[in-house]
Specification:
Elements lengths: L4 E4 L4 H13 L4 E4 L19 E4 L2 E4 L1 H11 L11 H28 L1 H11 L6 H21 L6 H22 L9 H16 L1 H8 L2 H7 L3
Parallel strand pairs: 1-2
Antiparallel strand pairs: 1-3, 3-4
């Protein structure tokens, strides 16, 4: 297997999702971080202008879902991210899409609505860079994330309503995990990696909501296995 390189913004749950996919399949890889002002180089990596970007087998692949599909197609003898059963695969795809397109915005909300969580996020996003970049990163990060929330719609909702709905999502996840310990079937799939990567970013930066997530016993056990 040729050298595998993950180009990432370290605080991105989508980049962490790809890292966990590679670990799940047992594919060794290296990372290149675009923290701090190095983020200005990200648009040059691909036409989409976003990370994650994976260099593998002489190819450059952008977008976590496209990377997941490629990994299973190129390495079918390694543990599969998508189950072979068509119905289970459909459920995995639904969970993944839900995590990427909806759950992500709750994670963003908790970063910008809690000053301590925002400070943690800024520290991670500027890790390995000169200290003065922390001063630059905080207003830029908050502004960019707030704009994302408003454009998507979550940023126009009342804070209490957002948080009440998030708790409902946690209760649903807890209920599903109570069946087998996994979101689909009886073993880890991309559904677990996608949903877990979003929740683990909340755990990493928000003490209050990280503790809330871990207060659900099935979720707490599950994220420890991701």
């Amino acid at each position: 297997m040729s050298s595998v390189v993950l180009h990432q913004w370290e605080i991105s749950p989508f980049c962490q999702k790809v890292a966990r996919m590679l670990q799940f399949k047992g594919i060794p890889y290296q990372t290149v971080n675009y923290n701090g002002v190095l983020g200005a180089k990200v648009p040059m990596l691909s036409k989409a202008g976003k990370v994650p970007v994976l260099d593998i087998d002489g190819k450059r692949i952008q977008d976590s879902t496209r990377i997941a599909r490629y990994l299973d197609e190129a390495y079918p003898d390694l543990p599969l991210l998508y189950p072979g059963d068509p119905m289970q695969k459909a459920y995995v795809e639904l969970w993944e899409d839900w995590a990427d397109e909806l759950l992500y915005f709750y994670e963003i909300h908790f970063r910008v609505s809690d000053a301590e969580a925002l400070d943690h996020a800024v520290a991670i996003s500027a890790e390995g860079r000169p200290k003065h970049e922390l001063v630059l990163m905080k207003p830029l990060l908050k502004s960019a994330l707030t704009l994302q929330l408003k454009m998507q719609g979550t940023g126009r909702m009342a804070k209490a309503d957002i948080e009440a709905e998030f708790i409902r999502h946690l209760e649903r996840i807890e209920l599903v995990l109570g069946q087998t310990g996994w979101l689909v079937g009886e073993s880890k799939t991309l559904a677990d990696i996608a949903v877990g990567s979003q929740l683990l970013e909340i755990v990493r930066t928000s003490k209050v909501w990280g503790a809330k997530i871990k207060s659900y016993p099935h979720i707490a056990q599950w994220i420890g296995l991701l």
